[in-house]
Design a protein that fits this description.
Number of domains: 1
Shape: elongated
Number of helices: 10
CATH superfamily: Outer membrane efflux proteins (OEP)
Strand order of the largest sheet: 1-2-3-4
CATH topology: Outer membrane efflux proteins (OEP)
Distance between the termini: 52 Å
Mean pLDDT: 81
Strand content: 5-15%
Radius of gyration: 36 Å
Order of helices and strands: HHHEEHHHEEHHHH
Amino acid sequence: MKSIIYPALLLFALAASAQVVDLRDADAIAARAVESSSAIRVLDARIEAARESVTLAEAQPNPMAMGGVQNLEQDLSNDPMMTMYMIGASQTFIPKERRRALRGAAEARLEELQTQRASIAAEIERDARVEWIELGSIDARLGVIEEIRSLTESMVAAARARYETARATQSDVVRAQLAHSDVTHRLISLRGERSAAVARLLSILDLPQETEVPRIEVPHEAPESIRGPFSFATHPAIESLRAAVESAEARIELARAARKPEWGIEGSWSYRPEADGMISLLARVELPIRDDSRIEPAIRQAIAEREVALRSIEALERTLAERAAVARAVRDESAEQIRFHDEVLLPQARLAFESTLAAYQTAGVDLEALIGVQSSYVRLALDFHSFLSRAMRADADLEALARGARTITVASSGMTVDAPGAAPSMDAAAASGM
């Protein structure tokens, strides 16, 4: 019975997991990636803790209750003239300036975490989209190779037909079969790449590796160049550094407020059985005798940290502007290549292959010419989808930069700046509280 129930439960669980997100929808993929990210969960917990710390920042310490015996003889016997029984309470008061500075530091830390979350979420969404784009590109290339494989079967059939009529040698048949086998080899390699891409995507989405992923259909045209110059004034990563500046300024104020001493009061009531009760009222104040060694270094440290954050803002603004320009250049160049391939190169390559195949069937050309145009057609068809993938990745980079990302996944050379799995580094930063 168990051998029937357990597989059924597993299939049900896998089906339920697959229904959580539409794997054909890039937006649903991105939303699921953020929802299942451990970095986001860690940050959400930190944000909740920081939000509570804002409430606690201005709270005064709890009062202290006291009670006991004074002047008891060392043999634990009572001296009617000295032994007293006492109860009382005390309260320490933190200066208002210090509590206000504590609240400012807590609010700045909360803002820093919230903007950091937006920045990391943008990168996680982008990385999920990039993996989805990569999977869609592989599926598109698989379709191309499957189509070309059927065309090479016609080439093999033509070589055999010419061999059987003594118009070609056996080597033509062997070479045609080799060309067909090379296409099959590409097909096997792409299937392996797809399995790896599926594994990465399912891991990002926190779905079981057994989840079936259907073929992804990506658009066959380049994204439109609609985004103008970027303004990073409200970029979450910049806002996070500004919050770090505010946090440093709050720590400066907190250190300066420490010059104002804490003070407290203490009241007690004592009595001896043989005498009337007595009341005591005391005041306490902190003595500022270590300010030079305790406060001044703290002020200098906070000033230095503020300077670091200010310089980091300038550096990040330049870096973001550069990365946006690179991503836009990649997208525009790839879009031009896509149009040229779609309108000129691919139609010419397909026509050349079909006409050369027809000519070969009638002994108009040799097999070398047919294999040459077949190889060109394969290369150009695969190049088209590579450029399409680059354009879509660059567009995803631009979208992510606008929403708060710090990194991009493409470079003008076509090589990646950050691999699709760039999010783990951000996860590590979030988990460490950076």
